[in-house]
Structure to design on (542 residues):
């Protein structure tokens, strides 16, 4: 039997699907009495492992899934394979499993063996289709004070109306080619016209042209918009892993040989300032006149 | 306060990755090396905390002799001392790495152990948590803000666009993400000091971990050909057509 940790959000249903490919699945969620505490999740996993002796415990490689599994692995002193894209059970129970997992945020894969009496693994996002919803047991573990020592004291919500990078349908990304913080004004304008958000490469956040919250890539946001417009971005693998979830990519770059173009569906070769300005004009020109008051 | 920062030497890969013939490693013949970005921010955070509260900073890495370069980079940024767990072996899985790091950190008298949330290359998302567990310390991961007052670290991390606030008593383990700060550049005096500072070398005790790499693979790239919509501003009408086709304009 495979235990699968389910948290709110679609990623967990991907983890369920992944687990179903390995054997019969028992899905559980952790009831931490209204708060979130990594220690409570770890206690839950440890107690469920003890109770059911599963072959494996699987969770989504979300921030929380990753955290819970790392704590559980440390407590159980078992190996943990993070960000798996596939797994194959051993012939006999207890034998090592063969896994393929992501390195470098997904720009490289690793074939590895995972041993231990119970296999612990997290499932990389968007490598399997989500499963249909399954019954989920809400489990409240027995707790010690230490389990609750680190827990969320409060949350600060984002200001209402903010389009977050990860939810935006269109993301206009800028790289070193934008040239300055001011240069992002044009990209803002285009994003506003398309109801989207502005993102950037690590170079522009490192130069202080944009806040790090806008960074797309391995150490920034993983985005999955309908369209990503990459302006003056060369297309380093660490950037690509952040934007390859986009349904379509349009690259605007003055260098026809920039790797970004080869990773895109559409491209415009030219100076991004001129191209973006012209696109904004054209959008305004062809916009239907506003109706109503 | 005494802060230790765990950093890892990783190749500075660019537009594509090439593997060695045996597919065991990235071919680094033409690559430089760097500290993982999250960890560079951990170094910066250590420096800022000590500038504010007084104390010492130490950088620790487990890696090949050449990893001394990353320790020297950390010293050039302002870190005071450095420890290299020197090993020629490359099969350190997260369990083995954490055990070796915990051994040298155990009696270090540190108030705070900083890690990256995940290493840039292997991305195991666990070494910091395992060290915390081995040392019996509380741990928060994915942190993007630290304030310390009266022996307690108040930390924040991002969650669905909002923030989650935690408090942890020191000593503690905190793993950070890029964005917590903007790391400084090494200063000239820093670089000179980095050359002169002696790096403490320790031979780490290797133990076999349960996650064993067999070989690396470069994933298939998406094959669809790019459609060039035009050159320069003259492409704008075609671009807008495509935006409309895609239903975003
Ligand atoms: C471990 C690690 C993690 C990393 N994480 C990330 C990450 O999360 N996100 C990320 O983005 N990077 C990340 N990087 C950095 C990454 O390797 C690249 O350095 C970075 O993405 C390059 O940014 P860029 O494309 O803006 O700049 P450059 O590579 O300098 O490219 C600039 C591009 O702009 C074009 N250009 C210049 N002027 C114009 C103009 N006027 N009009 C049109 N085009 C123009 C050029 O032709 C070029 O293609 C990471 C690196 C490492 C080692
Ligand atoms: N070889 C190493 N030497 C020093 N610190 C390391 C090493 N490997 C991992 N770490 C630390 O542990 C963090 C998490 O690593 P990982 O579990 O591999 O994702 C990294 O960001 C580093 O801070």
């Amino acid at each position: 039997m495979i235990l699968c940790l389910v948290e709110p959000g679609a990623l967990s249903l991907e983890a369920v699907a992944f687990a179903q490919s390995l054997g019969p699945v028992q899905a559980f969620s952790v009831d931490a009495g209204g708060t979130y505490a990594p220690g409570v999740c770890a206690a839950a996993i440890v107690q469920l492992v003890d109770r059911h002796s599963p072959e494996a415990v699987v969770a989504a490689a979300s921030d929380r899934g990753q955290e819970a599994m790392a704590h559980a692995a440390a407590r159980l002193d078992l190996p943990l394979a993070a960000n798996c894209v596939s797994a194959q059970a051993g012939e006999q129970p207890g034998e090592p499993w063969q896994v393929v997992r992501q390195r470098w945020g997904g720009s490289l894969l690793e074939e590895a063996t995972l041993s231990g009496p119970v296999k612990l693994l997290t499932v990389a996002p968007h490598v399997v289709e989500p499963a249909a919803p399954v019954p989920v047991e809400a489990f409240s573990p027995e707790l010690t004070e230490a389990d609750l020592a680190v827990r969320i004291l409060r949350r600060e919500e984002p200001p209402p109306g903010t389009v977050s990078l990860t939810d935006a349908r269109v993301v206009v990304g800028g790289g070193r080619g934008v040239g300055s913080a001011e240069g992002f004004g044009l990209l803002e304008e285009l994003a506003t016209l398309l109801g989207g958000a502005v993102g950037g490469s690590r170079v522009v956040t490192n130069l202080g042209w944009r806040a790090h919250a806008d960074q797309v890539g391995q150490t920034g946001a993983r985005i999955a918009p309908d369209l990503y417009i990459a302006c003056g971005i060369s297309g380093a693998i660490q950037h690509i892993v952040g934007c390859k979830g986009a349904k379509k990519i349009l690259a605007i770059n003055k260098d026809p040989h920039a790797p970004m173009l080869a990773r895109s569906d559409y491209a415009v070769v030219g100076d991004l300032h001129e191209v973006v300005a012209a696109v904004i004009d054209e959008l305004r020109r062809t916009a239907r006149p506003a109706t109503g008051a | 306060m005494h802060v230790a920062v765990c950093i890892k030497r990783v190749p500075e890969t660019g537009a594509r990755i090439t593997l060695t013939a045996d597919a065991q490693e990235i071919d680094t013949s033409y690559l430089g090396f760097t500290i993982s970005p999250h960890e560079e921010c951990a170094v910066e955070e250590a420096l800022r905390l000590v500038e504010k509260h007084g104390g010492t900073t130490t950088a620790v890495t487990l890696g090949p002799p050449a990893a001394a370069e990353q320790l020297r980079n950390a010293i050039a940024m302002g870190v005071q001392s450095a420890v290299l767990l020197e090993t020629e072996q490359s099969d350190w899985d997260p369990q083995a790495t954490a055990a070796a790091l915990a051994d040298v950190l155990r009696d270090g008298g540190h108030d705070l152990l900083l890690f990256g949330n995940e290493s840039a290359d292997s991305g195991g998302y666990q070494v910091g948590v395992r060290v915390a567990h081995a040392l019996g310390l509380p741990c928060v991961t994915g942190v993007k803000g630290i304030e310390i007052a009266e022996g307690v670290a108040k930390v924040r991390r991002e969650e669905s666009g909002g923030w989650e606030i935690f408090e942890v008593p020191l000593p503690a383990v905190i793993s950070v993400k890029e964005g917590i700060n903007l790391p400084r550049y090494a200063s000239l005096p820093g670089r000179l000091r980095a050359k002169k500072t002696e790096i403490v070398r320790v031979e780490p005790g290797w133990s076999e971990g349960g996650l064993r790499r067999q070989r690396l693979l470069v994933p298939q790239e998406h094959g669809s050909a790019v459609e060039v919509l035009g050159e320069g501003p003259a492409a704008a009408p075609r671009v807008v057509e495509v935006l409309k086709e895609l239903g975003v304009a």
